[in-house]
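Chapter review: from sequence to fold.
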Amino acid sequence: MGGADAGGGVNVDSGNQLGLNFVYFYSPQLAIEVLAATPFSHDIGLDTVGALANTKQLPPPLSANYYFADPSAKFQPYVGGGINYTIFFDEEFSSANTNAGFSNLELDSSFGLAAQVGFDYMLDNKWLVNASVRWMDIDTEVSFDLNDSAGSVDVSIDPFVYCITAGYRF
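The token string follows.
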């Protein structure tokens, strides 16, 4: 049985998390990067209902980065592009919404594009400080039941991710 689009606006709150970047340089200007983090936790709301549910997600992006500066420069700006695969899990309605008839919450996993700009600032030959801004295309279908009637809504999350990291080059 197919669900109906619930309509209305869907909102997802922001989240903060610790993460790690793994970067492998294929040449002095080209690198592959994976951003890994512990799960993000988000509250989900509908404009017509208010606070609705919460979920956890992991959106690890894989990017190819191009560095503009000479590898011996202290300041090394770069741009990158790639893909991400977001996995949603531990989806659950708040107890008030479960009591109101909501059940069977599910968020579909998502493939999307990712883009970033950033820079490395070399403190010495091995240690660096990195700052970057990423954008990730995360679109999911949220499906649920309300009083035994199936419903769904499409959600575009599309977050900007801001990172400041300390790094070490091997």
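Two observations follow directly from the output. The chain has one domain: 4-168. Residues 4-168 form a domain with the Porin fold (CATH 2.40.160.20).
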